[in-house]
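=== RUN LOG ===
request id: a7f3
mode: sequence -> structure
chains: 1
length: 418
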Amino acid sequence: MTIAITGGTMIDGTGADPVARAVVVIENGRITAAGPESQVQVPAGAEILDAAGRTVLPGFIDTHVHGTYRARDMRQHLLNTPTYNVLKSIEVFRETIACGITTARDMGGADAGFREAIAEGIIDGPRLLISLGMVSQTGGHGDYWVPAGLRIQKRAWLPHMVADGVDEIRRLVRELLMRGADFIKICATGGITSVTDSWDEPQFTVAELETAVSEAAAKGKRVAVHAEGLAGIRNAVAANVHSLEHGWFMDEACVDRMVAQGTWWVPTLALVPLSVEHRRKNKAWAGQQMGQEDVKDAQIYALMQDQIPLWKEAVKRGVKVAMGTDQSHRLLVGENMVELGFMVDWLGMSPMEVIVASTTKAAECIERPNLGALKPGCLADVLVVDGDPLENIRILEERERLHLIMKDGKAFTNKLAA
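=== RESULT ===
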């Protein structure tokens, strides 16, 4: 089947100037031509989707999500069956693609079954890359031990994710790769939601992190590292990880090394300020926390303000940025595009730079060169938005403005006149 999207202003994801009155031709789920109507011929018999007066973009890529469900209320979580959590996850993935995210890197929660069910069209959702879970040291961010003396299983379909020392990490990474992981996620610091650690304490040694990197590399895979505080960020960068997740409290020396090594930064800026705001509005949500989230969020948010000049300088100096939200049961499901405004305000990026970081740069980060661009040979992931995101990036937050959401040439949302 051949489809032609006509009449819109095309932003192709590469950073090139917008193209007015563009034509995008799609055949068998791939883009075969894209450019001004004076240069691209609409094939005879093509289904025509009229995008006049709107902007045509590639599908966006969120490089940091948690797409599987678990109840935030721990009592309820303990009463829910694993199959209930799996079925509730369908709604989470559907909400994620409904806001324009056509590809996502799941940072812990989804196993190969979710990835394949979406790929086969059994459930709706963004194309997934999976880590299965996040590797944690004993008492670390991914170890959900509670003072009652037990470990709470967050997602019953995942293997045990706690490892200590080089040999245990090697074994666990090998198991995750055996189970189909597209990349490895490991925690180099504590986190906001965990019970037994602080967000800024370092976790795992450089040697342990390097073991994960080398074992993943042996299978042609990469390592993404959760790191919030400076000491853990330094260890992650020293281990030459592929992507630094969060990375809020990096220093100038870290920036130097990230630029030299080509380390990706996925800053997930919106989560903490939105958590602080949401907690003020929703007392029930605030009361369901386990790991002193209110204290940690307040600490981090206050310190973030001092980091903004360094973040802006890091971007100017060439640190590679890919969009990611840390969407989870906690916040941001279906609101992923809120991240874009924070990238403009806190990183000093232009709307075009943010779009590129969410499309071709994000595709580069996840090593999928056939995604993120409106150019021949790429998979046909396309958004059509009512308005100009170069004038106001925040229009992408308004889901009613998304008149077309297409993945692999198939429309999930289609409000265009045929």
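=== NOTES ===
The chain has a mean pLDDT of 96.
The radius of gyration is 21 Å.
=== END ===
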